[in-house]
Design brief:
Structural class: alpha/beta
Strand content: 25-35%
CATH superfamily: Vaccinia Virus protein VP39
Number of helices: 5
Distance between the termini: 31 Å
Radius of gyration: 15 Å
Helix content: 25-40%
Number of domains: 1
CATH class: Alpha Beta
CATH topology: Rossmann fold
Shape: globular
Largest sheet: 8 strands, mixed
Strand order of the largest sheet: 3-2-1-4-5-8-7-6
Length: 180
């Protein structure tokens, strides 16, 4: 963990249902998105233990919304937010990603940064970026940072998102999209 909560360890899910982001990939992701973080409203979709959204908060994002379908993950995210003393700038939602995006659309919630780290090889990056674009859940110039298997074919454009960068780290790739 870097930023204002550097050095604190986070709880993780001990089940095989989540895949934590490696420290190397996490540092790479945040070196890419640093120019956008200050005062941003962040959506951490498929949040797992919340490490990526917590990192964004610790580096200056104003708020973060964490979404995960697993109740165990929701509880771990909440515990990690309390542990890092960032819970007052966060909201944790326990539901599937489609329901969450529909609710954000209904409530007219928009984001500056979308963090996507879904289960690999299930088309969830394409599906969620398309749905986020379709629902108008981003401000113009917003970004989506996506962690995915390097073998996944991620197109250059998805809805109103255009890929502006892609970096490979072993079997993992990080793609950055901008919302137009």
């Amino acid at each position: 963990m870097s930023g204002s909560v550097g050095g604190l360890w986070l709880k993780t899910n001990d089940a095989n249902t989540t895949r934590p982001t490696s420290d190397r990939v996490k540092e790479a992701m945040f070196s890419i998105i640093t120019p956008w973080i200050a005062d941003a409203c962040v959506l951490d979709l498929f949040a797992g233990n919340g490490a990526l959204g917590i990192e964004a908060l610790s580096r200056g994002a104003s708020t973060a919304v964490f979404v995960d379908v697993s109740k165990q993950c929701k509880d771990i995210i909440f515990d990690n937010l309390v542990h890092t003393k960032l819970d007052n700038r966060a909201q944790v939602i326990n539901c599937d990603w489609i329901t969450a995006l529909q609710q954000f659309h209904n409530d007219k919630v928009i984001f500056d940064i979308i963090i996507l780290d879904p289960p690999y090889n299930k088309n969830l990056i394409l599906d969620s970026l398309f749905k986020i674009s379709e629902q108008g859940l981003c401000v113009p110039g917003a970004i989506a940072i996506c962690e995915h298997n390097s073998e996944e074919n991620i197109p250059e454009t998805v809805g109103n998102f255009t890929k502006i960068k892609c970096r490979k780290y072993g079997n993992t790739s990080v793609s950055l999209f901008e919302f137009e």
